[in-house]
Design brief:
heterodimer, A: mainly alpha, MetI-like fold, 12 helices, 2 strands, about 0% strand, globular, B: alpha/beta, D-Maltodextrin-Binding Protein, domain 2, five-stranded mixed sheet, four-stranded mixed sheet
Chain lengths: ~325, ~425
Amino acid sequence: MTTLTTTPDGTAAPRPVPPSGRSSAPRTLRQGGTVLAVPALVWYLLFMVGPLLAIFVIAALHWPGMLQPVSYAGLDNVRTVRDDPVFWDAARNTAVQLAVALPLMIVCAYMLGYYVAQRPPGHRVIRYLLFIPGLISTPAKAMVFYAALSPDGLVNGALEGVGLGSLTDAWLASPSTALACLIALDVWSGIGFTAVLFAARLSSVPDELGEAAQLDGAGHWRTMWTVHFPVIRDYVGVVTMLQFLWTLFGSAQHVLLLTQGGPGTSSTTLSFLVYQKAFIAADLGYSQTVGVFLFLVGLVGLLAIRRVFRQTY
Amino acid sequence: MRSSLTRRDLLAAGTGLAAAAALPALSGCSALAAADSDPDTLVVHTQLGTTAPGSPTYLKAVDRFQDENPGLKIKNLINGDDLGQVYETSRLARKEADVVMVNLYDKTLAWTDVDATVDVMPYLDDWGLRDRVLPAALSAWTDGKGRLRAFPYFATNWPVAFNRALLDRAGVDEIPTTGDALIAAARKLRAKGIAPVTVGGNDWTGQKLLAQIIQTYLSQEEARHAYSTGDFGSRGAREGIEYFTTLRDAGVFADKAQGLTSDTMTTQYNTRSAAIESAMSSALAKVPAEVARHTEVGGWPLADGAAHEHPTIIRAFTLIGFWISPNGVRKIGHVEKFLRFMYRPDTVSRFITESGRDMAVRSDTVSKGFPLVAAAQRLGSGVSEVLLPDVYVPPAATQPLITATSTSFTRGTSAAKVRAALESAYRSA
């Protein structure tokens, strides 16, 4: 049975054997390589590790405004955050958002990707269409949704058009539907892109597998989940992890553009809270404490997802 | 082998050097840095310049100023609500603009204290501009330590606009002046499918209207105390909150008011979907003619036992003012020319006639093209004034207060919960 692995090195690349009599050249080659990497390393330390450490440092400060004097606060910020109902609302909203958006997106995208990978007629066009949300900038996407969901927008117009006028609502202005609108935006913008990724990966799964399953009497649904899915299992894990991180950290943009966290705190998510507390309310210590929390959640989620989806053979 | 490696190394190093040299030129800061260090360019950080009311008039004024002062250039940096934050960031880098045009609100309240801007009182007197400013505006802009935070410029009358045509259509004969009349009017309006009072519950417009309604039972002193400290426990504050929740639960506010914004509010009023809005003069200036023709301005209806005699409006002098930054002090000669120009009667007149703005600077001009703005100016003593809370709310409480406002506008939130939400906004202050 052909065993498929995701790494392409079926055959190991031959290690460069230094020709005799020129033993000094490879050493120079390796040294030169390290030196050339130093600028990238410095950049990484400065712009990646630096801000990361800054999150932890600022979370321990009392910094009530960019120009205000800074003082040490220790764990005071943690206490403030823990006692603030807004934080817990945001945490709950983020949990709901991830619990709904992530499975929906991954499952639907996988099914779409599988369909496209079967190369139905017009599959190239479908791939482009699916990818379109990925080509639109976030503010543009948010404005499209804002216009569609506004009281005299597309959604209400469509409902009235099919005679369901009684269901019209100010979707973004209702505490009960504001978060749902955000989740819808997340799913819509992520599903096509993810589907294209899955389709690309599934295309490299040999056709024989699918054909063998169908010869044995399995329909597409069973084939999709019991044959192809295990094969690309850790790829699904990678994609889920990416979407998890994007949704967790990137929701701030959508919230800012659509509802600014309102009404009340019904659509405030943790990453938006970080932005709001830092730039709108100017309580930088609080903001970065939430940032630390978010970082830890992201880390735990990342490791958990990778573990759940690791290749089991 | 070795020689080609060296050539590649050289190429890489050369590209790196070229990139490093080109980077400052590529970065957008270069233009600003040039302007900063150019002694004949005045950098003005302003909210006017795109869609804010008064922008076209301001831009034309800047052009005229540059024509009159050859060699002196003005560079405008335009931001909206985020101007405070952008300015503070630039001040941190010591690259702030020379003159800032922004309201006294939220972050800007702290600016004079933290040396983000300078006390302009000495300049006001040196340049002989004290007589040009309305005394009420001067005292509004002066802080507790006697420092004048900025040169006052824009002001506002903030009445309630009533669309008489819509009210008549619903069978409401008179403009409501009491809470009960307002509730009755709201019922009739809803029967005709018209939203009664539209308000942006999700942003500052809701916060101001909520403050106005609460102040029905508060004197100006009590209101000042409540909004500076977050103590809404006084009898007047509690009665004011109950008045608000009564009106809200009787359906006086448009549906989903808690999620509407100032844009939705003005759209609803200007497209005749709503009959009443509480609007500041710049919003009144933008009401289209066919709606303005049927609009009357008045105050917010009173309730029994109110602390005021007449329906209330807000009158404020702390809208856009001219702040001077430490960088601006170094170009004080040019700043003086600019401010003298902006304070000139003809410049001030143009803001009144072309943009319909109310000014904190003395002027004899009356806005003919903006009937509603003129009507609001004429309200005089037929209305009572309540405070604009902006100047008293500590910066840290501003955003939480806006969130608390949205909660307050949600139907079903009890008066106790509204009070709790408002007070908790001050927790971090």
